[in-house]
Structure formats: structure tokens, C-alpha cells
Amino acid sequence: LSLAQEKLSSIQQSIMRGELVQALFTKTSEYARAQLKQRIEATVTAGIQAIFQNDDEFFVEMGEFRGQAAADWRVKTKGGVVDFEDADGGGLVDGISAALRLSVMETSRPKPGGPVFLDESGKHLSREYLPNMAEFLKQYTRTTGRQLFLITHWEELAEIADLSYKVTQNEDGVSTVVKN
Length: 180
Known about the structure:
Blueprint: H1 2-52, E1 57-65, E2 68-77, E3 80-82, H2 92-107, E4 116-119, H3 130-144, E5 148-151, H4 155-158, E6 165-169, E7 175-179
Parallel strand pairs: 4-5
Antiparallel strand pairs: 1-2, 2-3, 6-7
Helix pairs in contact: 1-2, 1-3
């Protein structure tokens, strides 16, 4: 009986230790998520404010979906809260998408190395915002030291490059590449 009681006591201590470790992991995870959320919100907010020259704020609503941590992204504007996936006009989604991708990459641990490739970033931006998007991308490369490869139809974005190429295609489908 005393051997069984010792074994039971040992098992109960092991269960208690496991529960404490689980609680520690939960708190650590919540803290890390809150820190990452704050950094991404600040970075994306700075990006959209630079592009759109306004006081809009990007924020993340944390919640749960099927027992797992989940996040929804919103933008607080003068007119209220906008779910950016439903936003129309001006290219808000394009601006947020670019800023969010760059933010996630820079806040990842370990941080991925190498250049950034963006294909048609700013494709749906209104022309009035293209110079701001160009400046935002230029500042990003200066700040991070990353090389940026940007595929675009917009001259305003291509002009920020240290080196650019223009690719055209003739009626026969033959492409010509010219260094700008």
C-alpha cells in the first residue's frame, strides 16, 4: 500500500509539473503574440500612412477559430473601421499587402535573408499614390539593407530603381529587354 501511495504521489507531482509547464507555455505564447501583433501593427500603420498620407491605423483583432489562435486585420479610418479585404478604390489592399508582407518578413525569427521579390505591388493603387509607394519601398530598402526586385507596369515605381529593365513583347510573342 505504501509503495502504491508513493507511486501515486509521484504521478500527481508529475501531472502538476506538466500543468505548470503548460501554463508557462501558454503565457509565453500569449506574450510573444502580443509583442508580434504590436510590431506588425506599428509597421503596417507606418506603411499605409506613408503611402496614403493620412492617419489611418492598421490593427489586428486576435481571437480563436476552432480552438486555435486566429487573427483578423482591419483599418481604422476617419469613417470607421474597414475590413481591408472588402475595401474598394485607391488600392488600400495593395498598400496593406505590401507593408504586411514586408513587416512579417522583418519580424520573423529567424529572419530570412536575401532579397525581396514583389510582383505587381501597387497594381491597383491610384496614380496619385504611386510616388508615395515608391518612396515607401525605397525607404524600406535603405532601412533594412535588402535588395528589392520589383516587377511593375508603373513607371513611377520603376523610377526608384538603381537599375531597371523594360521588357516589351511584339506581335509574334518575342520579348525584347532594354536596360533603362
